[in-house]
Design goal:
Strand order of the largest sheet: 5-4-3-6-8-9-10-12-13
Helix content: 40-55%
Largest sheet: 9 strands, mixed
CATH class of the largest domain: Alpha Beta
Number of helices: 20
Number of strands: 13
Strand content: 5-15%
CATH architecture of the largest domain: Alpha-Beta Barrel
Number of domains: 3
CATH topology of the largest domain: TIM Barrel
Amino acid sequence: MNKGDEALDGKSRFLSSAEQMKQDLGPALCLAKWKQVSLHLQTGMNNSCYHPPLHPIDPAAIALDPSALHNTEHKKAQRVIMLQNEKPAECSYCWNMEAEGKLSDRHYRSGEPWAAVDFEKIKNSTGKENDVVPSYVEVNFNNACNLKCSYCSPQFSSSWADEAQRMGAYPTSNPHNSPDHFTGNRRIIPAREHNPYVEAFWAWWPTLYPKLEHFRMTGGEPLMDKNTYRVFDYVLALPKPDLHLNVTSNFSVEDVLFEKYLDYVKRLCNTQIEHFMQYVSLDSGNGFQAEYIRHGMDSQRVVGNVNRYLTEAPHRNSLTFIITMNNLSVTGFKNYMEWILRLRQSYSKTYQRVWFDTPVLREPAWQSLQILPESYAQQLEAARDYMLENLATEANPLHGFKDYEVQRLERDIAWMRSAQGQDHSIAKADFYRFFSEHDRRRGTDFLKTFPEMRSWWEQCAYHARNQ
């Protein structure tokens, strides 16, 4: 995954492809609706990327055709809407970004080779076809996880599920992570139970695998999931030279588990796959603040495992930090960029091995960037300026920041500012209520961890007291 290393007219190929797609796609088309899928098998839910709400997979449909994991009736209806040059409401994040004059994720995703190759075929389709085989598949087999990230939920973390069962919901305006919510069709299927969605996945896998270009396992924590190693064993037995194999981890699991995982990665990188991408979820450049956001994480263990991966994984691999941009990420963001630059200088010799992405968090609302004062946007602009001062150049392409990395941060800042003037008093009150309860339950201390946010904390406390 060396996207962006080659320049076109002074711009990275990745950015140029997105700009070309902005012209070609028209007002509504997004190839991800056809070529990409995120499967949440622990709840039987689906979406094409992380922006639209999850929608249910029909268990009766997958019993007849396991490819219905991807080609749901809901998704086919959204495809038809797009082909009529209308904008599905569920894709509002991209429409809002485009209204701000920014490239959106539909431009970036559609511009990548795994999607763009079928542009003409998709543009001329009906949208109702049942036989669409995705090139990019992301799968979450179960919710087993050792962390309780502040913005997460029982759907994606067994540790969160255990706390919610023992201690109940958090006292926000909409009870957060209430056990009552995860019932009925939102029930999480435990790993110990039979799961028809996982069963359908493995029935679909032999048909899916030959056409895959990117396969990504998320969680939960994939390093704790037996299905991860089942996939690895399959790939080792049947190598696929064009496969990009990707795993998202918190990189904070027990040492014995990490040793097992790293051994697999070494063997996979020595076999016939195109590339192995390690995604690492980490939301702040300050270790103690990162541990607060991602409760249960050992930041020193994460840093050690990052360095071990980049040192010991032999070749055909990279590492991408996933920085979920929430309102606790801002004050440590510039430090994060400085660390990434040092890692690039240390480990990127002949190709880029250290990447990062900055997707914005939209829910829960009390952790959104949009409810912060303007001064926090200015802190992100300072980090943006640091990136601009250290841009990759044609002479030094591997040890600086990419143009589209700057553009994506600017997009996040624009999104952050797009809600200025709105009433955020409920979200601010919920911020105080949530993290006060967080500190009580988990033995943490917000003000000791984020002393620079004292004025914000007091503002949120005011709204909590006066609602």
